[in-house]
User: Which sequence fits this backbone?
């Protein structure tokens, strides 16, 4: 069947050009004007929509204004001070904020975390990134509670009313695969430029995972606990807030961590379009080719990311200790009180001694020149080698593959994907894969889509080629895995944008640079899932293999890898998702794929164009995701549970 | 035995899991064949059950895993909506009660203990025990004082501030028991409360449970899959198989007159002398005076030492002290040796 299909496909590709030109490019007349429709709706919303008493425009302005208040307060407290409703807010100052963060670390997990978190903030202050970092942090401080709260409420609603839950799942899927830029376009149009709309975009971006995690966490609350709640006569409200949510607390805190990290990721991106902050610093430094300054701002992002991640993870792991005493408010909340004391003292001291408020200019370190020199040194001394390697890969691999993929007829590709869907998961999957492919083709963005597939495909391939051997090597060595795991975990907390910088510095702009950045970003899941899969293989089966006299090579290839296949496939899936999300960000370095479409739309504030291109990326992600999931569950079913070792070792 | 009014009656209760259960059951009628139900893609978890639990008795429901015990007990408390039948509590059909009525009933009249304890991990022992009262809106000092009493009742005084994860399995279940008693319920459900515990601890908890019940005198529905446990604790036992009750009666009934081979299989390993009561294996008195005597409720095993002196028979006396029959040596030897 596959052979026949491939033959038909090849025939269509080779000779179909003249006979069926429309199979290669969807004729203009057949393309539904999706972009115009979307823009039309947005236009109508901003210009005409009316709710009787007020217009839609009034509504969005109102929302902006409401969100702006806590933002101004947070920003004012963190740095600079502000006047809210005529009340002046004095800044806590860098020393106060750093001490507060350290105190928080201490409360959550003890001295090491206090040192890490405090150190990270001190680092930011020393290197003169304080103001930008606080701009970023202020957005996060406002966006995270809103995102967590909104996600929690949606998740609870989805859990309580199963119909509603089932209805929102496809939207959650879609929203998590739509590239980050695509969110920004309509938000900018509706809410205007500025930090507030960046925050709203962040909120919308970070809410779906929280919603999903909430639904999952509530579902996993043991049945007995639910029965308990009903048996003691809880009302529905008591059931939700007194029984379900507290029981699911640990899983929910994982969601909070996710929201924080996603918000950081988004805030960095959003700040590039005028909101200011660390992301903006990095981008403008790169544009000036001032690599030193770019790297310094980049390090500040890394410091912020690590501090926020470790703090929120510690909060998630923290378990309530036995109440020590009930002696009044001092005994019950020792840390709250010390935090307040620090806050007040630091603010007052800041008013008296300026150095406490703003980190003194003279105490600043700058490694900017040093880094600039390092990059310059590499670029001067190894320019030829780097250039040669880059061109070799470009000419021999990237460009041929790109040409080949772009030349493929959409009809044939849709047919092959339909067939794959059919074989892996039956008619529904076939319909989904084929239908979405046709939809992508009908937007007229086929060439961009294929460029996306090509870049993503090659990057994923390379990431898997690097990740698999590393995974195999690491999986058997516990100590090594422990340290590799720390590195991977840290790498995954970094905003995608950070990965782009070194690549740009060494390779300038273009597909090659994009590819390197994507590979770097997508490597972590490739390694992680390989290791998890390999380590999950039943040791008894490996012993059986040894007993049968398998060589170590046979044990790896015929037992371990075969049995770890489902996990490795899921790793491949994650790698693809990571690659796609990074791909869109590489639009900044001038790729010509769907990401670029979105980015252009963003700069032109063309919502229709941006959303259509964004949805195309989402569709590609969904097709890959569903097909691989089906393949993974098929391979799991094939391996069975107990007889796997027998026929594998045989 | 106990002849008071039944407190909880369950009549023709069915629970079928699956689509269109009620309709299918109506179509097939109350004598529905399990095979026909399975063919209709339904899981017959509870089939046509009639039971009556009397005031102050320990009613044990025994059956192997998957026989429908949990489903039945959840139907009795209406945690699961039965497909058909009625459940009468003090003569009132629970299945027609409104949500608000059920909440009130569960708050004040019912308590439940769970197999895996179902303690809330974020609360201390005291807070867990006080939780049912908190839900009712009782003020803090009052509910904590009451909870503390419950904690000491189950022998955990001093551990009030501990979190569930800091306790052993046996201690956790003690907390579960204290919590279920906090609101002073009339009707106490226990779903395999000791199954998750080690055998030694299980024994200890059974003793504790017997001690508690001698003080509290609750009406109890106790679920177990362990026949020895059932025999130790029960006033009456119902044996379940595939969702239906095969036989219900006193432990003695089941051991001496098993209704089916299935019941016989369970009772085979039980020392019958320990279960059989003098009153039910005695023969008519032959009038010989001057014999040692035992009460009707004494088990044969307990009466056996009296025969050491070479007596041929022992008089059996009723509750009023009059001789109602005699226990013959041959009967005792037979039961003791027969196992
Ligand atoms: N929600 C449900 N949906 C479908 N089938 C169910 C459901 N709950 C229970 N069952 C089925 O009903 C039957 C009885 O289950 P139940 O839990 O009452 O058994 P049990 O006697 O309590 O067993 P155990 O000793 O394992 O707790 C089983 O076959 C079970 O698979
Ligand atoms: Mg059960």
Assistant:
């Amino acid at each position: 069947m596959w052979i026949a299909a491939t033959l038909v496909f090849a025939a269509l590709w080779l000779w179909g050009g003249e006979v069926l030109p429309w199979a290669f490019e969807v004729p203009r007349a057949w393309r539904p004007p999706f972009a115009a429709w979307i823009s039309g709706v947005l236009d109508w919303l901003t210009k005409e929509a009316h709710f009787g008493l007020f217009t839609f425009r009034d509504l969005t302005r109102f929302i902006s204004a409401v969100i702006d208040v806590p933002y101004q307060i947070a920003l004012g407290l963190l740095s600079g001070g502000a006047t809210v409703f005529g009340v002046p807010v004095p800044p806590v100052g860098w020393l106060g904020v750093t001490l507060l963060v350290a105190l928080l670390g201490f409360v959550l997990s003890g001295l090491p975390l206090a040192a890490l978190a405090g150190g990270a903030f001190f680092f930011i202050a020393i290197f003169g990134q304080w103001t930008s970092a606080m701009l970023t942090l202020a957005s996060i401080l406002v966006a995270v509670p809103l995102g967590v709260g909104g996600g929690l409420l949606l998740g609870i609603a989805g859990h309580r009313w199963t119909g509603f839950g089932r209805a929102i799942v496809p939207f959650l899927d879609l929203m998590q695969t739509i590239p980050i830029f695509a969110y920004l376009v309509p938000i900018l149009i509706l809410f205007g430029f500025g930090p507030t709309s960046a925050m709203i975009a962040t909120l919308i971006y970070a809410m779906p995972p929280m919603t999903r995690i909430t639904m999952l966490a509530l579902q996993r609350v043991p049945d007995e606990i639910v029965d308990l709640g009903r048996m003691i006569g809880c009302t529905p409200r008591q059931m939700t807030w007194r029984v379900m949510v507290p029981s699911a607390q640990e899983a929910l805190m994982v969601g909070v961590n996710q929201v924080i990290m996603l918000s950081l990721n988004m805030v960095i991106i959003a700040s590039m379009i005028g909101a200011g902050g660390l992301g903006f610093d990095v981008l403008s430094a790169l544009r000036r080719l001032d690599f030193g300054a770019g790297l310094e701002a980049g390090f500040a992002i890394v410091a912020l990311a690590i501090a926020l991640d470790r703090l929120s993870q510690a909060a998630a792991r923290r378990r309530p200790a036995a109440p020590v005493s009930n002696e009044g408010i001092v005994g019950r909340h020792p840390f709250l009180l010390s935090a307040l004391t620090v806050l007040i003292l630091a603010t007052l001291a800041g008013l008296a001694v300026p150095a406490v408020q703003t980190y003194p200019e003279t105490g600043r370190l700058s490694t900017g020149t040093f880094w600039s020199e390092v990059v310059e040194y590499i670029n001067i001394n190894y320019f030829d080698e780097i250039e040669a390697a880059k061109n070799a890969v470009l000419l021999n691999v990237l460009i041929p593959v790109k040409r080949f993929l772009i030349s493929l007829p959409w009809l044939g590709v849709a047919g092959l994907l339909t067939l794959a869907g059919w074989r892996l998961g039956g008619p529904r999957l076939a319909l989904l894969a084929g239908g979405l492919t046709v939809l992508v083709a009908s937007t007229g963005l086929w060439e961009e889509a294929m460029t996306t597939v090509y870049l993503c495909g090659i990057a994923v391939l390379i990431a898997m080629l690097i990740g698999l051997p590393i995974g195999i090597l690491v999986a058997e060595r516990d100590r090594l895995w422990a340290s590799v795991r720390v590195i991977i975990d840290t790498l995954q907390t970094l905003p995608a944008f950070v990965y782009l910088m070194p690549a740009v510095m060494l390779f300038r702009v273009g597909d090659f640079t994009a590819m390197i950045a994507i590979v770097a970003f997508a490597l972590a899941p490739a390694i992680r899932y390989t290791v998890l899969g390999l380590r999950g293989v039943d040791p008894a089966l490996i012993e059986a293999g040894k007993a049968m006299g398998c060589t170590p090579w046979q044990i790896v290839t015929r037992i371990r890898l075969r049995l770890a296949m489902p996990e490795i496939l899921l790793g491949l899936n994650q790698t693809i998702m990571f690659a796609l999300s990074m791909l869109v960000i590489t639009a900044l370095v001038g790729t010509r794929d769907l990401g670029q479409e979105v980015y252009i739309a963003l700069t032109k504030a063309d919502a229709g164009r941006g959303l259509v291109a964004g949805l195309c990326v989402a569709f590609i992600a969904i097709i890959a995701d569903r097909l691989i999931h089906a393949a993974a569950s098929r391979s799991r079913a094939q391996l069975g549970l107990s007889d796997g070792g027998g026929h594998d070792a045989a | 035995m106990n002849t008071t009014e039944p407190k909880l009656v369950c009549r023709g209760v069915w629970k079928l899991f699956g689509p269109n259960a009620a309709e299918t059951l109506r179509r097939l009628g109350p004598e529905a064949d399990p095979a026909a139900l399975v063919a209709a893609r339904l899981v017959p978890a509870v089939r046509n059950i009639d039971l009556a639990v009397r005031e102050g008795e320990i009613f044990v429901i025994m059956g192997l895993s998957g026989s429908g015990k949990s489903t039945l007990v959840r139907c009795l408390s209406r945690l699961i909506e039965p497909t058909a039948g009625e459940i009468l509590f003090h003569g009132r059909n629970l299945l027609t009660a409104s949500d608000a009525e059920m909440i009130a009933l569960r708050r004040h009249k019912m308590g439940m203990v769970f197999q895996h304890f179902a303690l809330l991990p974020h609360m201390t022992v005291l807070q867990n025990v006080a939780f049912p009262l908190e839900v009712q809106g009782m003020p803090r000092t009052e509910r904590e004082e009451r909870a503390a009493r419950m904690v000491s009742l189950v022998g955990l005084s001093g551990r009030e501030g501990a979190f569930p994860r800091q306790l052993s399995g046996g201690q956790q279940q003690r907390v579960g028991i204290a919590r279920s008693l906090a609101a002073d319920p009339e009707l106490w459900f226990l779903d395999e409360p000791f199954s998750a515990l080690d055998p030694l601890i299980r024994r200890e908890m059974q003793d504790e449970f017997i001690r508690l019940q001698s003080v509290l005198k609750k009406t109890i529905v106790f679920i177990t899959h362990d026949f020895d446990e059932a025999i130790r604790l029960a006033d009456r036992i119902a044996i379940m198989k595939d969702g239906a009750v095969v036989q219900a009666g006193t432990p003695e009934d089941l051991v001496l007159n098993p209704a089916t081979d299935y019941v016989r299989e369970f009772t085979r390993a039980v020392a019958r002398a320990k279960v059989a009561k003098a009153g039910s294996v005695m023969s008519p008195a032959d009038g010989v005076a001057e014999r040692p005597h035992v009460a009707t409720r004494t088990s044969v095993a307990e009466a056996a030492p009296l025969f050491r002196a070479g007596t041929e028979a022992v008089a059996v006396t009723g509750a009023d002290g009059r001789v109602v029959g005699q226990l013959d040596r041959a009967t005792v030897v037979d039961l003791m040796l027969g196992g």
Notes: The CA atoms of residues 1 and 419 of chain A lie 9 Å apart. Strands of chain A lie at 82-84, 87-89. Chain A touches chain B at residues 222, 224-225, 227-228, 230-235, 238, 242-243, 246-247, 249, 319-320, 322-323 (CB under 8 Å).
